[in-house]
Write a structure and sequence with these properties.
Layout lengths: L2 E4 L7 E2 L4 E7 L6 E7 L4 E2 L1 E6 L4 H19 L2 E6 L16 H19 L4 E6 L1 H8 L8 E5 L5 H16 L9 E3 L2 E3 L1 H8 L12 E6 L7 H6 L4 E6 L3 H5 L10 H13 L6 E2 L8 E6 L2 E10 L4 E8 L7 E5 L12 H11 L4 E4 L22 H13 L7 E6 L1 H13 L3 E5 L49 H4 L11 H7 L3 E6 L1 H11 L8 E5 L10 H18 L19 E3 L2
Parallel strand pairs: 6-7, 6-8, 8-9, 9-12, 12-13, 18-19, 18-20, 20-21, 21-22, 22-23
Antiparallel strand pairs: 1-15, 2-3, 3-4, 4-7, 5-14, 10-11, 15-16, 16-17, 17-19, 23-24
């Protein structure tokens, strides 16, 4: 997709620890990169830092960790840029484009140049895993003054081998073709895999004098890095908590706070005590591009009193149907697992639909609500978030929305559709059985209609909030629903969706489909409620052929029911990649 920047000042910065964070697009006007600038207090910086994320699925996992690191750096007077490489995250381009590694290295150069344009007098590159290899490889052309290599891969070749082996171990031989290599959640072209393998540190002739390398336990420094860093000031320390960040999952995943603190302190200690003014001139917050031959517009938005963050994408000249709201997944972001929400939002916007991909409060790039902790999955405040979003996006009719969600986001999408009475809801592998986080401090929130807690029933008495249901057209308090401090029998949520005319699609593997069918058995009829079973569907859609199938199914359903027109072209048909079956509603 070709993108062109326009300038807009509609997205205010949001306060962090002691500074502010502002979403930006920067770089080449015809192919901009997305990022977040974390500005120090008083707009005075002692230096700058560019955060080079890992690649593939590790980039999704590390995003919140990088946000925390950026906040720590800005608190120490360092203007910091978190950004998405070309063809990743919210940036322009696609991972199937040619010349990926060269584009990623160019992205690092553009990020460093952007900070210098903002007024940073020196720039330190901080990279994790494969991002550490990119940072070291771009050190000379980016004119880096310092390097932090956080759990660097041994080499680009070892990264590709390890990731490919992980995929084969979990899913067996891949079904991709033409020399492509499949890794968890992504497919590398033969060219990209080879280019990653040839990544070479480029430090000779660079201004880098100080380097901090954080490795796991007794893991040695990668040989190519050690060779290129010979004769320079290098410090070696342990990457504390790295295993629990990258190898943990769900509630077992932890943010490596000790490593964040050490990196921020190390960078700041080398900078002069006095800073110089920095500023963002005419911040770019909107761009225009083409997708499927249609012109689309994409821009950053803040929603409601909590300043929830999201990206809106819409057709440049026409709009049809309801607004599509993509909900982030568990600890993921508005980008979606494997960039799924970005892909779908741009496709559907080209068909005329207005799309908004959202970070719930305390997750991704949204701040937490006052008095509530950050980084909590399935928090009760998500109900308030979606109320604010529907009111802001569709003030005349908050029900004129379609919720889209995967996994934890799928659960929240269904809950919102029950409460709002939305036009539709589409979910993939929604998780309905879990322990709500509020049970640690008290009873379950009564707004939870779908949750089947994994705990003793005697501990899930529902407290009564002072808020109405999420729809102005259904103005009932939760007390009127019938909760009076104890868990009472409720009508089927499936029946509520059917009775409200919510067009519902659930795409599920066996376990998730069975859980939903238990609920369907209590409903009188299932008009407009469809469950599509995809045998052996991976919960996070890591295999490429499964993502292709789910994308096709979702696109078929959404464009047919809400854009009011069939798909004109599609690269892959669902039936070409699976023996899937549709269970009649």
């Amino acid at each position: 997709m070709v993108l062109h920047n326009t300038r807009d000042a509609s997205v205010p910065p949001v306060a962090g620890m002691t500074g502010t964070a502002t979403p930006v697009w920067f770089g080449a006007p015809e192919r901009p990169l997305s990022g977040w600038v974390h500005m120090p207090q008083g707009n005075v910086a002692r230096g700058g830092a560019v955060l080079c994320a890992p690649l593939a699925r590790e980039q999704d996992i590390a995003r919140y960790t990088f946000r925390r690191l950026a906040e720590e750096l800005s608190a120490r007077g360092v203007i910091t840029l978190c950004f998405d490489y070309d063809g990743t995250g919210d940036s322009a381009g696609d991972d199937e484009d040619p010349g990926r590694v060269a584009a990623w290295l160019r992205s690092v150069d553009q990020a460093a140049e952007f900070l210098r344009h903002c007024g940073a007098t020196s720039v330190t590159l901080i990279g994790m895993r494969a991002g550490a290899l990119l940072a070291a490889s771009a050190a000379r052309t980016a004119h880096a003054a310092g390097l932090v290599l956080w759990d660097p891969c041994k080499s680009g070749r070892s990264f590709v081998r390890e990731q490919h082996a992980l995929h084969r171990l979990q899913f067996g031989p891949s079904v991709v073709m033409d020399g492509q290599i499949e890794i968890p959640g992504f497919v590398l072209s033969a060219e990209t895999a080879a280019d990653i393998g040839w990544l070479e540190p480029d430090i000779i002739g660079s201004p880098v004098q100080r380097t901090l390398i954080l490795t796991r336990g007794e893991q040695p420094t990668p040989a190519p890095l050690a060779e290129h860093l010979a004769g320079r000031e290098v410090e070696f320390e342990e990457a504390n908590g790295q295993e629990l960040l990258l190898e943990g999952s769900g509630a077992n995943q932890e943010i490596p706070l000790a490593a964040i603190e050490r990196i921020a302190t190390w960078v700041a200690d080398a900078l002069p005590p006095e800073g110089s003014p920095v500023q963002l001139d005419a911040t770019i917050t909107k761009f225009v591009g083409r997708h499927d031959g249609e012109e689309i517009v994409e821009w950053a938005r803040r929603i409601g009193p909590s300043q929830l963050f999201g990206i809106e994408t819409h057709h440049a000249r026409r709009s049809v149907g309801p607004t599509i709201i993509f909900i982030n997944t568990a600890y993921g972001t508005h980008v979606g697992l494997n960039r799924l929400w970005v892909d779908l939002a741009r496709r559907w916007a080209a068909a005329g639909l207005r799309c908004f991909r959202l970070d719930l409060s305390g997750l991704g790039d949204s701040p937490s609500r006052p008095g509530h902790p950050e980084h909590v999955v399935r928090s009760p405040v998500a109900f308030d978030d979606l109320f604010d979003v529907t009111q802001a996006l569709c003030p005349e009719d908050p029900t004129n929305v379609v919720f889209i969600g995967l996994c934890a986001g799928g659960y929240q999408a269904l809950e919102a559709a029950v409460a709002v009475g939305a036009k539709g809801v589409c979910v993939v592998n929604p998780v309905l059985r879990f322990r709500p986080p509020e049970l640690g401090d008290g009873p379950i929130d009564p707004r939870r209609r779908l949750c089947r807690p994994t705990t003793n029933v005697s501990r899930v008495a529902r407290r009564l909030p002072d808020v109405p249901l999420l729809s102005r057209t259904r103005m009932r308090t939760w007390r009127e629903v019938g909760f009076s401090g104890s868990l009472k029998a409720q009508p089927s949520w499936v029946q509520e969706l059917v009775d409200s005319g919510v067009e519902t699609l659930c795409i599920c593997g066996e376990d998730e489909a069975n859980a939903i069918e238990v609920e369907m058995s209590t409903a009188d009829h299932h008009d407009g409620f469809e469950v599509q079973l995809v045998p052996e569907l991976d919960h996070a859609l890591l295999p490429a052929h499964q993502r292709v199938e789910v994308i096709a199914r979702l696109t078929d359903h959404v464009l047919t029911h809400f854009a009011r027109r069939p798909i004109t072209s599609r690269a892959v048909s669902p039936r070409e990649h699976s023996t899937s079956a549709t269970r009649p509603a």
